[in-house]
Automatic annotation (TrEMBL):
<dbReference type="InterPro" id="IPR027417">
    <property type="entry name" value="P-loop_NTPase"/>
</dbReference>
<feature type="domain" description="ABC transporter">
    <location>
        <begin position="115"/>
        <end position="364"/>
    </location>
</feature>
<dbReference type="InterPro" id="IPR017871">
    <property type="entry name" value="ABC_transporter-like_CS"/>
</dbReference>
<keyword id="KW-0812">Transmembrane</keyword>
<dbReference type="GO" id="GO:0016887">
    <property type="term" value="F:ATP hydrolysis activity"/>
</dbReference>
<protein>
    <recommendedName>
        <fullName>ABC transporter domain-containing protein</fullName>
    </recommendedName>
</protein>
<feature type="transmembrane region" description="Helical">
    <location>
        <begin position="676"/>
        <end position="696"/>
    </location>
</feature>
<feature type="transmembrane region" description="Helical">
    <location>
        <begin position="894"/>
        <end position="915"/>
    </location>
</feature>
<dbReference type="InterPro" id="IPR026082">
    <property type="entry name" value="ABCA"/>
</dbReference>
<keyword id="KW-1133">Transmembrane helix</keyword>
<dbReference type="GO" id="GO:0140359">
    <property type="term" value="F:ABC-type transporter activity"/>
</dbReference>
<feature type="transmembrane region" description="Helical">
    <location>
        <begin position="716"/>
        <end position="743"/>
    </location>
</feature>
<feature type="transmembrane region" description="Helical">
    <location>
        <begin position="755"/>
        <end position="778"/>
    </location>
</feature>
<dbReference type="Pfam" id="PF12698">
    <property type="entry name" value="ABC2_membrane_3"/>
</dbReference>
<feature type="domain" description="ABC transporter">
    <location>
        <begin position="976"/>
        <end position="1225"/>
    </location>
</feature>
<keyword id="KW-0472">Membrane</keyword>
<dbReference type="InterPro" id="IPR003439">
    <property type="entry name" value="ABC_transporter-like_ATP-bd"/>
</dbReference>
Length: 1254
């Protein structure tokens, strides 16, 4: 590319320009390189790289995608297709998809199939089953929820080895196969009628996908995303219809205000909305949603639910989720996988009836002195089959069978009306999908077994976590844990390790090899001058009538050199102007003039035997003056001596350098040769950038914060980094010094030079590592940190090095500026110091080698002039620079730069300490506080009229109680006290004066919509954010005053998983156990019990990056362990009407189905019944034959739970109600009411603010 630009520039500068006819012409006449050659090379490179890309994409698609065999280009089937049938098991092995058994509900026959999975299997390594013989139908106009336990795939090996090998997620693998990421091992699936084995392109055309994690373009807006994916799906859609489709989808997603906002500026919930919209847009007939509402708050989740319930009318929707309520509400049918197989499938009520425990009756005793047996007797008087599930404190829970619903009315009526009973309240709830899910598959068995093992979490914590190391032993254990983490991470990050060890060594070797290829000033070979150097030389010359014989000789010389000529005769002596020679050629063809017209001559005579020959040349080519003169001389000799075959040879052969010139050139090379040091800086840039990768990753993922919460001091944390990184740095430095020795680099590999260079590397490492650690806080992604730090070290290092070289030249008069810049560069740019150390070593070595033999001569009063430059006291301004003591503080010694490196190390350590002390954040908060106070005083108070913003009475009473608490005394009872906590970001109030306390042994829940301040509150409690005002006490320790001690009292499970993907679960738990001070002898047993307690023991030895989302949450919970309810005023009613088996009627000799009309009449009867019996009921949704009602209690109308059961039981037979369930208002519904109220208040405030501002 550089040569091409050079050729174009040369053409333009000469006025020729670059066009098609000049494409194959060089920039210089006697050059061989043309732009055509460069363009041809680029085209060949493009073809080669395209072929490589095509091959790699097909044969090695990476983690996702179906790979072809390495020899696929040589197979006939790839180019012409395959006629071989795909392997499907024989009919005897195929299951009937519509087969009905006790756990598979009868499938609807009136609906079309959107996805049909037939006996599909997926194995890994031939013996690891992730999906095994899966048969499942996903119907149109329905939402099918696919559930699977974490690690739903089952491991089956011939020798039945341990289960802790790789286990894939069955449901995730199923979705991956349907979307074309994986290829099924056996069986197949049809999506919208197309086989995924042979018609994947058609499958994708009708498929909409919402992946588990957002895959969005940061730079594209919401509207641009929808437009992009809509055009991909519907290439034939008109612009008008496309615009309408986008507008409709934006309205459905409620993203009208965000349509022009880039995706990187959207909240997490909005990103999930956009991902769902991308899946739906473009009229996708089949939509697959993988955990679409993950990360959303309850209200946003409900919004997506409502959207999907509307959109399912036009599509087949398959949804994967971890929220059981989501599957319960959305799923027309729910399929649960375990062990890679389909365990059950049916509607929510069908599954609840098959696997559920019926109802749960929770009774609150009037006091702790009331015996549980007394309450049990009361319940069993009415329902003898009632089973006691649990008894904790004053709460007692019973399990009631679905078959006993007719007995609920008298029992509940007595609980409600008989105030003499020893109870204060009760609640009733129906079996949830969560209970059904836990009872399906091996995980339910694991849970039952774990209960029988009687693992008591409280006893576990007391036995294992109270015996800890303290003091110096704890510090050494923490340091060992962190160093082990770094070593494991390096071992499992080959690219990172390569960039730290091999890349610097390789770059430095390539630099020195390339420098060896550059011609150096030396005795050059002879060069013969001739026009044969040019492609098609052309000579045009002039002569008068008196010079014809000499012109003939000139013509003969040109013919002997096979040169085309053009002789012009007929001008008077002394009348021709050499400046106009060739002007006619320029007018017709400037290219010929520039590239072919190299020499010319004018031959004239005065008629008296005196000849004048003017030799002309084209100065755009090399050596033309001597060539033109050679031709003229040869012609004249032949004419003068009447010779015919004599020739003149002209050779350019530079004289050899003298010994003095050799010595001076050697010194000059040492002073100006900084190419090697630039190569060293380039090598160091890769090394330095690699040290920031893990630091940035741990900070962004909050892994560093979680380790600090485990009791790690900042000094210990960074010391572990320094020890491991410095060790790697020393190894890499040794390899770079070895490279200089291998290449015998002058001044760096001779005598003691490697020792001095090694000292420079050692001291440089002390400065560059703290520098990189401090700069790592600037970046938010590891890859960006690596790339930009490499660029920073390279650009800043080379720029400062060149600046120093330029300002050190005496003739430029910049020495004063050099003395100012040198300490600045030395303090802030460690790589500059190492570059100067290397250069000074070369300079000093050359100077000492030249002058050491003349040291005695310098003692003479008048030393010889040729050695005067070696006499430092007598040479004046013409000295050869050298110092006998290499560590001298004077140039070219390296001592001053070693001191700069030590000062730089101390400087960046101080910067790192200030960052860890959060002084910058404290300063920012103080400025914001002053700004807030200032604006608050000057800003007029606004009157919002009748706006009411008073907290609940319970909240006011709790605040007053907490204010009166004494943390030093009451802290023995209350583990956590939060008092009037506030957090402001500028003018935005994130947390506004909240107060609460958590007693020991109590589980306290915080609810709130996205942006309510939950995460900010947790960050302040854990010390991740500073507190604007208020106080937090953890076990009597103040977060403000005793942060580190308070953090050691906490176990924290953050919102997002703060773990290293390249560590296994066991290694992660081992590290955090050591950080907590758990004795080494107890760690292994602790890990075993933790993994068993949280049901992920089969995954504990897998890498974290292979964990599912659920198992990652379990691991985060395990890391954290290594330390009055009121029922609402309403009920939720769920009614299922019988499917009314298809009724056949005889009409005119034909059978007609009356199913739909009969069902419609039946639904209308049920709706009329509910409206009459419960006037405050509201119909929320109708799913096929399922009615969902909410019955609200009002001031004028009250209904009891017993009345609902009684009314439905009496009308059940007449209304053909097959099944129903009743549950009271749950906590989520209460939360949603608060969220709606908050949104209404915010809307009212905005309207009032707008009025006031107007």
């Amino acid at each position: 590319m550089a040569f091409g630009i050079y050729i174009i520039t040369m053409k333009e500068s000469r006025g020729v320009g670059m066009d098609w006819k000049h494409l194959n012409m060089p920039a210089v006449a006697n050059d061989r390189l043309t732009l055509l050659i460069i363009v041809s090379i680029k085209l060949i490179n493009s073809c080669i790289y395209l072929l490589i890309t095509w091959y790699m994409t097909q044969a090695f698609p990476g983690k996702y995608g179906v790979s072809l065999p390495w020899y696929f280009p040589f197979t006939k089937s790839y180019w012409f297709g395959s006629n071989e049938p795909y392997h499907v098991q024989d009919a005897t092995q195929l299951k009937n998809v519509n087969e009905v058994n006790d756990v598979i509900e009868r499938e609807p026959k009136h609906l079309k199939t959107g996805i049909k999975i037939q006996n599909m299997s997926k194995t890994y390594n031939g013996n690891t089953f992730s999906v095994s013989n899966l048969n499942l139908n996903i119907y149109q106009k329905q939402i099918t929820a696919l559930l699977g336990h974490n690690g739903a795939g089952k491991l089956k090996k011939v020798d039945e080895i341990k289960l802790n090998s790789y286990i894939c997620l069955g449901k995730t693998t199923t979705i991956s196969i349907l979307t074309g990421l994986f290829k099924p091992t056996g069986g197949t699936a049809f999506v919208n009628g197309f086989d995924i084995r042979t018609n994947m392109d058609n499958v994708r055309a009708s498929l909409g996908i919402c992946p588990q994690f957002n895959i969005l373009f940061d730079e594209l807006t919401v509207e641009e995303h929808l437009k992009f994916y809509c055009k991909l799906k519907r290439k034939d859609m008109s612009s008008t219809k496309l615009k309408n489709e986008i507008e409709t989808m934006i309205e459905k997603l409620d993203l009208i205000d965000k349509r022009n906002v880039q995706s990187c500026n959207l909240s997490g919930g909005m990103k999930r909305k956009l991902s769902v919209g991308i899946a739906l847009i473009g009229d996708s007939k089949v939509v697959i949603l993988d955990e679409p509402t993950s990360g959303m708050d309850v209200s946003a989740r409900r919004f997506i639910w409502d959207l999907l319930l509307v959109e399912k009318k036009y599509r087949s929707i398959l949804i994967s989720t971890h929220f059981m309520e989501e599957a319960d509400i959305l799923g027309d049918r729910i399929a649960i996988m375990a062990d890679g197989k389909l365990q059950c499938c049916g509607s929510p009520l069908f599954l609840k009836r098959k696997f559920g425990a019926g109802y749960h009756l929770t009774i609150a005793k009037s006091g702790p002195e009331i015996k549980t047996e007394e309450v049990t007797n009361i319940v069993q008087q009415y329902i003898s089959d009632a089973r006691l599930e649990s008894s904790a404190g004053i709460e007692v829970t019973y399990s009631l069978s679905d078959d006993d619903t007719k007995l609920f009315e008298p029992l509940l009526q007595r609980l409600e009306d008989d105030h003499k009973l020893p109870i204060s309240n009760y609640g009733i709830s129906v079996t949830t999908m969560e209970e059904v899910f836990l009872k399906v598959g091996e995980y339910a068995k694991n849970k039952i077994e774990s209960i029988t093992h009687s693992i008591n979490p409280k006893e576990y914590v007391q036995n294992h976590l109270n015996v800890k190391n303290q003091g110096c032993l704890l510090l050494f254990q923490q340091l060992y844990a962190l160093i082990s983490k770094k070593i494991l991470y390096s071992m499992r990050s080959p690219f990172l390790t390569m960039s730290q060890l091999t890349i610097p060594f390789f770059v430095l070797n390539m630099t020195m090899l390339s420098l060896r290829a550059i011609p150096r000033l030396k005795e050059s070979p002879r060069l013969h001058m001739s026009l044969s150097q040019f492609d098609t030389p052309f000579v045009k010359y002039y002569y008068d009538t008196n010079s014809r014989q000499l012109a003939d000789k000139y013509e003969k010389v040109l013919e002997d050199n096979i040169i085309a000529t053009n002789r012009i005769q007929g001008f008077e002596y002394g009348t021709i102007n050499p400046l106009i020679i060739g002007l006619d050629i320029v007018k017709t063809d400037i290219t010929t003039y520039n590239y072919d017209f190299m020499v010319s001559s004018v031959i004239s005579s005065d008629g008296m035997g005196n000849h004048t020959i003017l030799a002309l040349f084209n100065n755009q080519a090399y050596h033309t003056p001597s060539i033109s003169l050679k031709l003229v001389d040869e012609a004249y000799i032949r004419y003068k001596y009447n010779l015919t075959d004599i020739s003149v040879t002209v050779t350019n052969h530079p004289l050899p350098m003298t010994a003095t010139e050799n010595r001076m050139f050697s010194v000059l090379s040492a002073q100006t040769q900084f190419e090697v040091m630039q190569g060293l800086i380039l090598a160091l840039s890769f090394l330095a950038g690699s040290f920031a990768v893990l630091a940035v990753k741990e900070r962004i993922t909050k892994g560093k914060h979680l380790q600090r919460l485990s009791g790690v001091r900042a000094s210990v944390f960074w010391l572990s980094y320094f020890i491991t990184d410095y060790t790697i740095y020393l190894v890499s430095s040794f390899l770079m010094v070895l490279a200089f020795i291998i290449h015998n680099e002058e001044g760096l590999s001779n005598e003691n030079q490697p020792f001095y260079l090694s000292v420079g590397f050692i001291i440089h490492g002390l400065a560059i590592l703290p520098c990189v650690y401090a700069l790592s806080f600037v970046f938010t992604t590891p890859s960006t940190a690596y790339a930009r730090l490499c660029l920073y070290v390279l650009v800043i290092g080379v720029a400062t090095f060149i600046t120093d070289q330029i300002t050190s030249v005496k003739e430029l008069g910049l020495l004063d500026k050099n003395r100012i810049l040198k300490p600045i560069f030395g303090l802030f740019v460690p790589v500059y110091d190492l570059g100067k150390i290397g250069k000074n070593l070369i300079t000093n070595f050359e100077g000492n080698r030249i002058c050491q033999k003349y040291s005695n001569a310098c003692e003479m009063d008048s030393p010889p002039e040729q050695i005067l430059a070696c006499c430092k006291e007598k040479c004046g301004n013409n000295c050869i620079p050298f110092e006998k003591n290499y560590f001298s503080l004077d140039e070219p010694g390296i001592g001053i730069y070693a001191l700069y490196l030590l000062a730089s190390s101390l400087f960046y350590i101080i910067i790192l300490a200030l960052i860890e002390m959060n002084l910058t954040r404290t300063l920012e908060n103080w400025i914001n506080y002053v700004k807030f106070k200032f604006t608050y005083v000057l800003k007029p108070k606004k009157n919002f009229g009748n706006q009411i913003d008073f907290p609940d009475n319970d909240v006011v009473a709790e605040n007053q109680r907490i204010i009166k608490l004494d943390p030093t005394k009451d802290g023995q009872i209350n583990s956590l006290i939060v008092r009037n906590l506030k957090k402001k970001y500028g003018d935005f109030v994130a947390v506004d004066g909240i107060s609460y306390c958590v007693e020991k042994g109590e589980c306290f829940g915080m609810l709130g919509v996205n942006g309510a301040g939950k995460t900010t509150t947790f960050k302040m409690i854990t010390g991740d954010e500073s507190i604007t005002s208020g106080e937090i006490f953890v076990n009597r320790l103040s977060i403000k005053k005793n942060l580190r001690e308070a953090q050691q009292e906490m176990g924290y499970c953050p919102q997002f998983d703060a773990m290293l993907d390249d560590l296994t679960g066991r290694e992660t738990l081992t590290m955090y156990s050591r950080l907590r001070g758990i004795k080494e002898s107890d760690i292994e047993s602790q890990i075993e019990e933790l993994s068993h307690l949280l049901y992920f023991e089969m995954h504990v030895d897998k890498l974290v990056k292979e964990y599912s989302g659920g198992n990652k949450r379990k691991l985060s919970t395990a890391i954290s362990i290594t330390i009055e309810n009121k029922f609402g005023n309403g009920y939720t009613l769920l009614i299922r009407v019988s499917p009314s088996e298809e009724v056949a009627t005889l009409d005119g000799g034909s059978i007609r189905k009356a199913t739909k009309d009969g069902l419609r009449q039946n639904l209308e009867s049920v709706q009329q019944f509910v409206q009459e019996k419960f006037p405050s009921s509201i119909l929320k949704a109708i799913h096929n034959n399922l009615l969902h009602y909410t019955i609200e209690n009002t001031i004028n109308w009250q209904v009891k739970c017993s009345q609902i059961f009684g009314a439905i039981e009496k009308a059940r037979a007449n209304l053909q109600i097959e099944d129903y369930s009743v549950c009271q208002t749950n906590l989520e519904q209460i939360f949603l009411s608060f969220a709606r109220q908050q949104r209404e208040e915010e809307k009212l405030n905005n309207q009032q603010n707008h009025i006031i501002n107007s």
